[in-house]
Amino acid sequence: MPSNPNLQTLSNELLKDVLDFIDADPDRSINIDRRAYLSVESFRLPSPPVPSRAHDVGNFRLTCRRFAEIGIPYQFSKVATRFSHHGLERLDKICSQRHLAKHTRKFSYLVPYFYVEGCRHYNRPDPSVFLSKAEDQRRILQTAKDTRILRKAMAAFVSLQHVQILRLQDEADRMLLEALQESDLQQTSMVDLKWTPACIHATTTIAQALLDTRSPFSRFSGPMMNSQSALVIKDRIPQIVPLLAARLTCLELHFDDTEALEERMREASRLFRTVFTAAQNLQAVHVGFPSRAPLDLGLEEIFHSIHWEKLRAFGIQAWRLSADEIIRLARRHSSTLRGLRLRDVQLRDGSMWKDVLTMLRSEMEQLDWVSLRRIDYSKHFDELWADSMEVGDGSLDGSESDDEDDFPAHFSVRGSDNDSEGDYDSEDMHSIADTDHGPDANEIALSPNTTASLPFCTCSRSSDPASADDLGDNGISVLYQQRKMWERWVIGRCQEHSS
């Protein structure tokens, strides 16, 4: 052993252990059937990194060539790029260096609202800010700069797994949006910001780039999609959709607009059929809508009774459904489904939650977790909203605990100069800690190949109801305490007597 040991004498493995204390292992990801997967892997919103971490990793790489090489995966496994001249130039530089680009596994595209003509008539705040942004966007679109660089990047990212499109909103955009809401500017058409054309353009250019370069990606997340974009995609690039869908193992879509939602989703039904029929390798699916405006459309008008043989996690958010619709879909995947998310689902008149819960408990033997956040009955939901002011996607009665985070009301990412990842859904990370059968019980990520333990009786140890009749389901409303207990009851079945 050297008489004066230093960092240079440490093995690469030990140096990586040191970096793991600064930032997480870039090759480590959450198992797809974990309850946290849909929140952390797909709906995790980029936000400024902890300054010391980014600074420390950067300084580590500046030490010497060896350290620079070891630190590359920690800086470039996740790349986030803005739709802007500066952001695209930065992406161009990264993908021009193969030794950097080959480590990128996740690409997040941060897209701002598109400005429309007329912003020079607006005097608060400084209109020069908007004029500069509008001109930047026009140059990019006119020269197809984004199309060229995105295609180059998708070709360079040979290890790409996950593609994500997010809406970007900086302070100037926020101030303008607030002014639009507080004044008559919208009626006078003096100035406006549009997300629909931005979402459409970003989606179509990314899709074309992925197809042209034969990208190895298999996961797509759109947590801020616009329903109109689905219709445009259906008409503009119909031949591309099934080709890309066939590569998917994970698909997460959240539509955050409410205008003509049922009509647009009904019109997009054939597109969903095309996507889900082609996506035979899907292992995780989430389709959601704004909590304040549950979709009043049959479940199968979107999912078309399709069965995915490998499906392990399924989630929907903000839907008005009957108990039978949920039961039929769950039953189709009872042999593989490990996780089920039914957030903001409102049961229609004539349905009871206890019927759904009974089926899940008795038939879904592979189920490791279930999320029932803000479930209720449709009539009660409407009564609460009729008596309330406009609020975000939080609970109307304030019963949700502070540590339970969900899709934010407007889901926009605040702009920053740093491109990295941010917070996640804390409820889903901690999951159902009171049960012995949840995925977090022993802090082990369960997988379909995990060998089950021998059956043993836990009936006498459980404090939860013995039967569905004791769940307290009155068919009128669901309290926070009830749904948490129901989650435990569905998963906390006795291993001996439920088999």
Description:
The protein is an alpha/beta fold. It has 21 helices and 13 strands. Strand 10, helix 18 (353-363) and strand 11 (369-371) form a beta-alpha-beta unit. Helix 3 (51-62) packs antiparallel against helix 4 (65-76), helix 5 packs parallel to helix 8 (145-156) and helix 18 packs parallel to helix 21. The chain is globular and about 70 Å long. The termini are far apart.
Keywords:
globular, 11-stranded parallel sheet, alpha/beta, 13% strand, 21 helices, 499 residues, two-stranded antiparallel sheet, single chain
What's the structural blueprint in terms of helices and strands?
Elements: H1 12-22, H2 37-42, H3 51-62, H4 65-76, E1 78-82, H5 85-95, H6 98-101, E2 106-112, E3 114-115, H7 127-143, H8 145-156, E4 162-169, H9 171-182, H10 185-188, E5 193-194, H11 196-212, E6 219-225, H12 227-236, H13 240-245, E7 250-255, H14 261-267, H15 269-278, E8 284-288, H16 300-303, E9 313-321, H17 323-332, E10 339-347, H18 353-363, E11 369-371, E12 376-377, H19 378-386, E13 413-414, H20 426-430, H21 480-491
Helix pairs in contact: 1-4, 3-4, 5-8, 8-11, 11-12, 12-14, 17-18, 18-21
